[in-house]
Amino acid sequence: MPSAKPFSAAAGMLRSRLTSTLRQRSGDGPSRWTTPGHQDRPNGYFLNRTPLPPGQSRKWEDWELPCYVTSFLTIVILGVGLNAKPDLTLETWAHQKAVERLEAQRQILAADDSD
User: Fold this and answer.
1) Which residues of 54-69 are buried (b: 16+ CB within 10 A; e: fewer)?
2) pLDDT tens digits, 89-102
């Protein structure tokens, strides 16, 4: 049975790294995710966007229409293409061969009975 010494050493090293990382992030200084001049905390709205006044609609950004159209066409092409692909599984091939053999045996038996 392996000794527990390597596991306890690894756990201690991991614990020391995590505690030092947590200590560094708790300060009020600049973090690696924000830069000066940007909002540090979310304001409670989705994607930090304030709601528009009533009666106004949001203007689409220039990337949105091509992205939505491409996504829709991809789903349609994949849906049609994957449903229309030929069935090339081994089970289907074996079933067809078995049906052909049974049909050939029936024809032989029918020919023998008629003679």
Assistant:
1) eeeeeeeeeeeeeeee
2) 999 999 999 999 99
